[in-house]
Write a structure and sequence with these properties.
two-stranded parallel sheet, 7-stranded parallel β-sheet, alpha/beta, 40% helix, globular, Rossmann fold
Amino acid sequence: MSILVTGAAGFIGAYVSRALLARGEQVIGVDNLNDYYAPALKRARLDRFASDKGFSFREVDIADDAALCAAVKDEKIASIVHLAAQAGVRYSLENPFAYARSNLLGHLSVLELARSLSVGHLVYASSSSIYGANKSIPFKESDRTDDPVSLYGATKKADELMSASYARLYRISQTGLRFFTVYGPWGRPDMAYWIFTEKILKGEPIDVFNQGAMSRDFTYIDDIVDGVLSALDAPPNAERGFHQVYNLGNDRPEKLMTLIELLENALGAKAEKNLMGMQDGDVERTWADISRARRELGYNPTVTLADGIERFIAWRRSLPKAFA
């Protein structure tokens, strides 16, 4: 039996695939390798699996339900880790249909695949963006999530609702994971920590939104992977309606200016800051209440932002060239 990982060439997907392989699982990865950011980076992540016989890859768009079914029709799949999505809050202002296709139609395709294959458990990526304009801090899974500030957050809310309906209708065990600002080596170059790094290295000014008065619950990739695997091993039962959601964060929000200072220290260079107003679709702060994940999954993040940034910069310096 295999585990299907969607978005396997993505940041979290590649790490989760590697962790599953390390514990002896057979992994089938799917990804459409789109150009939202450099496909070369996605292919470089996949190249790391070249010698691993337990991993197989199919280039397929999850929103194409026929192609997705055809790609795995001869496989025995025990569970699915669904991480493929159109990410990014700001890009949703430019290309909303990409979010409807990947995050709505794509999620539905995966739900239908799970139903047709009678998989034992579907773990899927939600997001801290689901909390929208929520003022209660820290964010709890029981908080209302019906006041989105971005289309991206709205699509992730829709994913949770679709999953809840399929769990109830078809008794498919599902777990939604609300990720909080995941970062680290092999990450996404559209995220602030990577954008700032490249601009500081080039001596270019960085855009600092909301005059820098922002904070994020930065969560290192290794901690996120531990949470994903723990969730995968704990499918919700009938008593929970076959559906559960968890925050996966660091429970340690850090100021945006602290992130910039850590990057400056690690790079040995000062950033020229272009202070700007708040961007549409953004929020001032995020903070995950992870008490449920601690209690039920044994989730225990350990990597501080300072340590995580040091690891990222060491990896970035090891690259022969930057990924555009």
